[in-house]
Amino acid sequence: MSRRNSLSRAKVRVRRDSGTKLDYYNKIVNKTILAHQNPVSGLLAASTESDHSWIRDDVYSILAVWALALAYKKHADKDYGRAKAYELEQSVVKLMRGLLQAMMLQIKKVEKFKYTYDPRDSLHAKYSSKTCATVVGDFEWGHLQIDAVSLYLLCLAEMTASGLQIIYTLDEVLFIQNLVFYIENSYQIPDYGIWERGDKTNHGLPELNASSIGMAKAALQALDELDLFGSRGSDSSVIHVMSDTIHWCNTILTCMLPRESNSKETDAALLSIISYPGFALDDMELVNLTRQEILSKLQGRYGCCRFIRDGYKTAREDPRRLHYEPWELKIFENIECQWPLFWCYLVLDGIFYNDPEQVEVISTNLEDVLIKDEESIKLVPELYAVPAYKVEEEYKNPKSQDRVPLGKVPHMWGQSLYIISKLLRDNLIAPGELDPLNRRLAIQPKPDLVVQVTVLAENEEIQLKLANDHNINVQTVSDVAPIQIYPAKVLAYIYSFLGKNERLGLTGRPVTDIGFLATSKLYTMKGQLFAFTASFMDHKSFYMASDIDFTLDSFRTYVSFIERNWNNIPGRPTVVFVITKEIYEAHENLNSQLISTIKKLYSGYINGARVQLGRLEDFIKTACLTSLTFIGTGEEGVENEKQVFKYLEEQNTSFSKTSDLINKYKASLSKETGKLGVNNLSTASLNASQVSLASINKNQNRAKKLGAIMGIAKRSRSIHYTECPIIYNTAKRPSFAHIFIDPKRIIEKAAKIPSTLKVPLLDDTNDRQRYIVQNVTYQKMNDDDLLNLLRDNKSLHDEADILHYLYETKNLDWEIPAIHKNFFQGSRLRDLIGNVYEKASIRKMWWLVRHSAGMLDLTSDELPKAVLTLIVRQKQISIGLPSTRLNSEISIKSPLPKDQIYQLIKQAWEKDISMMMVTQELLIYMSLFIATEPQLFEGMIRLRLGLIIQVMIGELERTLSCSVEEATDHLLNLSPYEMKTLLHMILSGKELGATSIYSSRMPSSVSNLDDQKKAEIERRYLRDELKQGYSVRNKPILLISEEKDDEEGANSDLDKHGQWIRRRRLDGSLNRVPIGFYSKVWMALEKCQGIQIYGYVLNQSLTREMTKEELKFALLVEEALNGITEPEYRQLIVEACMLMVMLAQNEPRFFLNEIIIIDNIVNRANELFLQEQVKSDGDATLCCAIGKRCPSARGICEHFYDLAPSGRYGSMNYLFKALTQLLRIQENPDCIVC
């Protein structure tokens, strides 16, 4: 009994102590925060002098009030405590609803911003605390601050989950749903960031900010499937978020961290997303890395700086202007103001991640910098600054001088976080109460995931073939009824009704592509169950889906992607793969690949992912099931429901018609193939494509080459190349030809080479005559004659020729005269080209698929995501060819909508519509590679697609021993999967057609065939190699003479001659530089007046404008290098720069009052090399050493280009000698560089 009484007394004592502490914190909250709350609007005024109220500051400030209400509710033992808790809760609701009202008054901006992403259409960042109206104009402030809106939504979700009722009506629910659309694409929207000024020069330039993306991701995760009416809600009040938008935010965020943006190496604002309140990361290593980066670079004696070279309220800032001149940023270094606010974040970080040592250390430091008022209440000042008279001393000895508090006291945002930390440390509330959605647990390890896979046959015919021929039993699409299967675009259409409200003027979710995560769920709608296939299976979306190889490869990648990225999503992912007749009957090799893929699924693993193959109905209980409750609810629900089910009916009808059309066309093609006596569909299509127009070219004999491309389609190209280097033995030394020189020089040089050694050059005289004849003939024909010719023609190649002529002379919407409409499918030119596109897709005539797709201006839905993926990984993109007469490179430096990207591609390539399509493909492939194999892009900051295409053509030319025109034909004839594989080989430094594999797979009988048949077989083997991915790393194939003398010497030279010039061309085209190259150039720039690269001067003043690890500086150096059009010369410049920076780092005498001209170093090194060649009677005595200039880039001897970098006679040795001579530095034997 006595023990019970003592426990009771202890509890009473604890409650009494808690009540005393709570009353003390209540006093602080009322004095420092609630005293500023407007009684009408509920918003918090920034100060007594101004009624401006910021979204971000208000939300952060009210968090302390909410936390105190939770504490009162937890420890209330009397009516007073419960009443106090309710009173505080209503203050929180009042503020949150006031902000909601202010934003709803700008509902038109929300609607417009969903489509434009224009800063002028963004919600305002601050409002009047009296009226909720705007206080500044659209152009008078950096209003686009995605982190502020995201923070509001995040706290709305947490507060609603804790039991607060903030949202009252369905109209408000729909507005919140549209705010989700407002922030869901934050990963591609540059904004002004948490400090409202964008780029740190304060010139109002928005940039992609990691803190904004992280807060948006946190808000999206918190709101997903949350009922805003709490326990009293229904299906209508649930918020829906697409899982793929969360994944994209996470992907971009993890790529950027610990960097904040292009202009900020890091930022203390990142503390808000790696810990409370954001908890945006699920990787503890990245959390620790980001925190350590902030502490090492930004922490001081009074808190943390916001970012390096932050001039805000420093003694050297000019208060008369908001912006800074770039050159003056250097003067802010080491005197940046320090903010105690960030120590408040770090205390909370230590509490939530259970790090008592961090909590103790930071709390002690924080208490020392707080300011007490007349009532001894501790207040958090805004910042601490170095006084003007101590600035010079602080420059000399950073962090040594005492600072003074400036700005607001208290800083409400920081005061709020300080109060929360005190409530947590005093055990008045627990971390879980501030995070009722348990988002802080995202870093906990997850169990192994199993991907559920269902393979379905399109119809019973495919089902029987799989069962009888391969003993594989699958269901058909109709067998899984009542579950309905649709393509991803149907799900996109359904989601377009989400958030729609005519009364508010809201149109719902913009129709965008649906990602892999969304199609890996099952959906219920009005009692019906739906599954959706991934977008890559829809051949109508873009022609790449018509390549079965690419489809199968995409499926394997899809499953692996799902396994890696299915994070914090309830249930298992369910993948549906439908085997269509097109996939099954593609051809024998692909059929075996299909069966192999299915058997791997049976084994339980594919591409490293754990899978379970089974029936769809068996997966329902364990699948992730999402309810499309927004269909059929609300005022317009009935009408929306009717539209959706009508659309589903149309899709079923459309699918049946398309299947019938394809089967009908294939049947006619089979008859045609049978007449030709050819079994292989692709071979038949080749022969059919080579039937010429009899009325125009009766005596024209077409070349029978694999994938030959002729006619107007070929003439539309804007890319022209010369031959690749030919390495051969002469009586004395090998000689090299240059891939980018004038064709006349190649012909002149080839004329001097023995006929057995020549790479065949294209003699296009007959082709050119045919082009002229075609043009003249078409011009003489009227529209009726052309259409009659088109109608009677049976060659798909010539049909494309006629349509291209009409495309150039008409427009896509040109109406076919009524008399001809009955003979064609469709009534416009667009329809006729579309028919050719479909036929070419079925026949796998990839050059024609690309060409007709270009005429139709087809754009992949994946294009904007591909560009975004590359851009946010700190890559820039150049489209087109550098310094050509008709074309010029166009750069993409920021994420853009699909239409704008395509217009830039179109502008870069002008009339070369095939290369427009190839460019789209390469962007998509590179985005896939950089996501899965980022190491392929190390040392590359700009991706120059025109040069990469040149490299691809050069590799095909070298491997096939053909002309450049033929190699270009072959490139355009590669299937999407083959082109993807070729690109991967080039990026990874592998050798295409390497001797040890390529030659061993060739039958011995090939050597007995004539050149034409031999070439065709070689091309087929190359295609097989691309599909299988056979290659050898860095072992080039070189053409050598057939001289019998000194055969062993010739073989020993194989690995030497041409290897390094080829490698320099590859690295130069890929824009590769050594790791740390840009920061080392910055350090060298500090020790001289400037560095000149090909006429572009990098002035020393750049070091005052930018820090050495700032991405903006790297981009400027890259801009200087990009002025060089010859890739091998560019690489020599890079090598010379690396030597210069090594010398600057290791040579104390390297302080020069002049501009270093890198081109002079390379030219001088070339002169030294030639001098030594004359003395030793070396290779260059055949050309440059005796005054006969070889056809190489920038007058540098091609033998110098082919030198290995290291060694006594390596290029680095000559470059170093040239460097020391030009800089007048005596060579030092103790120097590391020497």
Automatic annotation (TrEMBL):
It is found in: Cell membrane. A lipid is attached at residue 1231 (S-farnesyl cysteine). Keywords: Calmodulin-binding, Carbohydrate metabolism, Cell membrane, Glycogen metabolism, Lipoprotein, Membrane, Phosphoprotein, Prenylation. Its main location: membrane. It is a lipid-anchor. The keyword Lipoprotein applies. Residues 1050-1227 form the Phosphorylase b kinase regulatory subunit alpha/beta C-terminal domain. Pathway: Glycan biosynthesis; glycogen metabolism. One of its GO terms (biological process) is glycogen metabolic process. Residues 21-946 form the GH15-like domain. GO terms for cellular component: phosphorylase kinase complex; plasma membrane. One of its GO terms (molecular function) is calmodulin binding. Although the final Cys may be farnesylated, the terminal tripeptide is probably not removed, and the C-terminus is not methylated. The keyword Lipoprotein applies. Belongs to the phosphorylase b kinase regulatory chain family. Phosphorylase b kinase catalyzes the phosphorylation of serine in certain substrates, including troponin I. The alpha chain may bind calmodulin. This is Phosphorylase b kinase regulatory subunit. It comes from Brachionus calyciflorus.
